[in-house]
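Schema walk-through. Below, the input block comes first and the output block second. Nothing else is stored per chain. Lengths vary across the set, and this one has 123 residues.
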Amino acid sequence: MMDKNQAFDWLSGASDIPADGGIEQNEAMMREAVEQQMEMARLVHSVFETPQGMDLMERLYNLTQGAPLMKVSGSLVDGEVALSPADWAYIREGQNSVIRFLLGQIELAKNPPEMQQPQEGEQ
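--- output ---
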């Protein structure tokens, strides 16, 4: 255990850094992350491109992003407001973010970005 007067050695793991500074390893990790994101996007797209998927997306959209943010009448329980408006806004925003995620994944699958190649002089 370090005592409070001892400095932390930030370079203790520096010997594990490859000679190229980890650029190749970093690029490989970035390619893997992009491929995982594209795999998710293709999955979401394949589900929602069907007629049933399009119908489901339209219904989900209308229930969330297409609906008013707050319905005060829906929050009345025995004549009293069960949730504050901030609670409703938080709940509704969570619903909206799911739809935005799905729509974003569909768009990504339709229009995948090109992987950036290192420019001359970078490496």
